[in-house]
Amino acid sequence: MKESIILGVDIGGSGIKGGLIDITTGQMIGERFRLETPQPATPEAMAQTFAAVVAHFEWKGAVGAGFPAIVHNGVAMSASNIHETWIGIQIERLLSEATGCKVHVVNDADAAGIAIMRYGIGKGEKGVVVVLTIGTGIGSAMFVDGQLVPNTEFGHLYMRNKKEVAEKQISGGVRKAQGLSWQSWGKRFNKYLHHLDRLLSPDLVILGGGDSKYFDQYEKYINVDYIVKPATYLNKAGAVSTAFMLGKQNREILPNDSLVEKMA
Fold first, then answer.
1. Residue 201 CB neighbour total at 10 angstroms
2. How far is it, in rounded angstroms, from Cα 29 to Cα 185?
3. In the chain, how many H helices and how many E strands?
4. Average pLDDT of the chain?
5. Which of 8, 161, 198, 246 has its Cβ near the most Cβ atoms within 10 Å?
6. How does residue 252 score in pLDDT terms, banded at 50, 70 and 90?
């Protein structure tokens, strides 16, 4: 197998998805493989499912993984859409032991954002760009002139005159659980985008995650002064980015240093 192909895994609150990625092109090689996230999403149960995804590819090398929490030095610092017992867990150690592979972990929304900014619709964009991943929760990644500001967690902002954080009102999971029409959900989401405008004054907001593919259903209810558009990588972004980041961190698995410089 080519040295530039790496296994990337996107760990989410509802599914754990993996794919082989060619980091020179950002393209997924073959089919993505997905398993349901176990419920409750405890460390032990999720580690077993993660290991099953890795085993599906008969993979023995290093693995890059996006994880749905604030990640600091490989440790989970939050657990909004997974079991609270994850807080304080050394994610990389647990997943490495479960798979027998060296696992590198980054916040999942940061991972998706990096892929979108490097390979997708955000490529070359300057100014303040916010990537929002709409799924079980609301993930976020912010870039200033192409540079990532990590672990932003804008889905946990409190809305004006509300007692709950934003993702408890506008996530894809909430839309499904409450049976909201695209009109009702779109108007809620528009209020959130206005809230982001007051706080960040973004130049561009890019929507990723599962609900981004339905953008044409709620676009008409968005009326903010900045540009809002859907991502092009959709659910592949997390796997693509974690593979890319792993490649940058581990020069020995890349063909040569010139490739690292080209991708940096």
1. 11
2. 35
3. 9, 12
4. 86
5. 8
6. very low
